[in-house]
Amino acid sequence: MADYRYVRQTDGFTCGPTVALVASAALDPAYGATVTDDAAEQHRIHAAANFIWPRKLGTTPWGVARVISGHTAALGTRYGWRRFRGDLRAAVAAVECDWPVAMLIGASIPRHWVLIVGHADGVLECFNPARGSVASIPVADVAARRLEALGFPRAFALVLPTRYI
């Protein structure tokens, strides 16, 4: 698979599948090596994650967790989700142990997925699939609802390894 910094979602509904693709490829390099068409894989993941949920409503937290978990079983880890309650300590701990964390963000309603891929000195590195780039976001800005650099101000949910939930 191409370097995740260059992967972009194919349409307005595939941010969740793109985040799941990038996280899965990072955690399962053998899977990542098989991905030759990012766009086709995003749509395959979208269909697999949303077998009941309407695709035009995006991807649910449990769908993103299920996709990533499919690539972490060999590592003895499953992903799950929880609502964001203003505390990122678990997410930071996971990322510092090389487990990417998906974060569902929005304004008044959840609308977009990003992937936390790094942390240093109180700053998160967040992959944004809409832009195919990484933005630096201070941890304090997440709780303060200042995520405009990612396109929306507020976090709604986190998808992370269950040992950190």
Automatic annotation (TrEMBL):
It comes from the Bacteria. This is Peptidase C39-like domain-containing protein.
